């Protein structure tokens, strides 16, 4: 995912989320409905949410009337997911080892998580569980740093880790050429939820206690002092949701 961290660090970050599952559930954004409609074809009935986390995307799939299976490797995240989205069938597993039969789902989605997988193993494994003609959809919420205070926030966060996530990955056979789309929207959240959003980033979870406290202190100072934010009960955080979809041939 990130050219500035090593493979062992990447595995540590990918496995870190369970430790901050409650902050993740409270602070991370949902996704725009338009993105859900774009990545899941209208004909789909059974959908797999891969790397489902605490269920931020899963609940939108259930809300769209789909039959949803969620696969997530972290026990802490699965606990939040089962509580938040009881209508989804939740399983332990990864994108590289999906606990589902061959050709059993119409669509697979992975929100904010494809950058943690090994595509050499995950692409054939996703293709295995998809019915021919089924769709793989990948989604990322990216903070829109055209807003000056968001650029300042990103600078504080990048001091600890530069995240160079490829949000337009190549998939290759047996998938068709990927299509891309972007959706702009605003996440309105409280000051406490914004601090939870920061605390639930993988590279913040793995910091030492003092480093994490210092970073959260710096973010709190930005929220209290920036003229666009100080004294506001609600914060409008702009996002661009970047999507990829490809059809299994
Ligand atoms: C940033 S969270 C995204 C969670 C959820 N999809 C969302 O949109 O909120 C990334 C998730 O990917 C999971 N994950 C990490 N490596 C994975 C892998 N190889 N296969 C599937 N999921 C993985 C993590 O446990 C974590 O829950």
TrEMBL record:
Keywords: Methyltransferase, Transferase. The keyword Disulfide bond does not apply. Residues 48-136 form the Methyltransferase type domain. GO terms for molecular function: S-adenosylmethionine-dependent methyltransferase activity. One of its GO terms (biological process) is methylation. The keyword Methyltransferase applies. Gene3D superfamilies: Vaccinia Virus protein VP39. InterPro entries: Diverse_substrate_MTase (IPR051052), Methyltransf_11 (IPR013216), SAM-dependent_MTases_sf (IPR029063). SUPFAM superfamilies: S-adenosyl-L-methionine-dependent methyltransferases. Belongs to the methyltransferase superfamily. This is Methyltransferase. It comes from Actinoplanes siamensis.
């Amino acid at each position: 995912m990130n050219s500035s961290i090593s493979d062992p660090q990447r595995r540590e970050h990918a496995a870190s989320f369970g430790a901050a599952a409650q902050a993740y559930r409270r602070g991370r954004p949902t996704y725009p409905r338009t993105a859900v409609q774009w990545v899941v074809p209208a004909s789909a009935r059974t959908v797999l949410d891969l790397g489902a986390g605490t269920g931020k995307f899963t609940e939108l799939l259930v809300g769209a009337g789909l039959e949803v299976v969620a696969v997530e490797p972290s026990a802490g995240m699965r606990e939040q997911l089962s509580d938040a989205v009881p209508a989804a069938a939740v399983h332990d597993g990864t994108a590289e080892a999906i606990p589902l039969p061959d050709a059993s789902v119409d669509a697979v989605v992975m929100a904010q998580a494809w950058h943690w997988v090994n595509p050499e193993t995950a692409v054939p494994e996703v293709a295995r569980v998809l019915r021919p003609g089924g769709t793989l959809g990948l989604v990322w919420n990216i903070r829109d740093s055209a807003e000056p205070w968001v650029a300042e926030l990103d600078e504080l966060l990048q001091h600890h880790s530069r995240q160079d996530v490829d949000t337009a990955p190549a998939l290759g056979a047996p998938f068709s050429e990927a299509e891309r789309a972007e959706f702009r929207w605003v996440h309105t959240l409280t000051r406490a939820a914004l601090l939870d959003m920061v605390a639930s980033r993988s590279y913040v979870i793995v910091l030492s206690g003092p480093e994490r406290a210092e970073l959260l202190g710096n973010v709190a100072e930005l929220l209290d002092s920036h003229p666009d934010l100080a004294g506001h009960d609600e914060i409008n955080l702009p996002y661009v949701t970047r999507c990829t979809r490809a059809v299994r041939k």
